[in-house]
Amino acid sequence: MAKRTSKKADKAKSKPAANKSEADSELENRLYLELETGRVVIHLRPDLAPNHVARIKELARQKFYDGIAFHRVIEGFMAQTGCPHGTGTGGSGHKLKAEFNAEPHVRGTCSMARAQDPDSADSQFFIVFEPAPHLNGQYTVWGQVIAGMELVDQIKKGAPGSGTVRDPDRIKSLSVAADVKGAKA
User: How far apart are CA 56 and CA 87, in angstroms?
Assistant: First the structure.
């Protein structure tokens, strides 16, 4: 005769699967930004900018960002990357419609760079060093640094004013955590 388990025991048995699903979801919405100095972990916010998050993940999986320079870095403001030319003039060739949101630009916010046209974001993004409320509602926030901000602080700064960097630091790799062997939520 088969032993019947209680509902409580059935729930306990199914709980690890739910936890695995939650962990998988967390890893799918996390980026590992590898710098020469170490790993920066970025929490993605598809709830704020689903199309931007999907595109960043797509580009990361294509290895688009690997080796790309932080071409514009302004002390006390932000570090910008994502231009394949290293000049701020290029992108992946796929423009995104703005997904402006109410999320504030606080220390560690990841947001899309764009030209004057609100729908001109492509592959370039920036990470703010300090709160930048003047950007709120005008740029698409898509993520937040949750570990390694001290490494972002160490990115080589550019010329005062323009932020243009001579011999810039580069992204070693940008990966979706779910794709990295041994990643844990």
Answer: 19
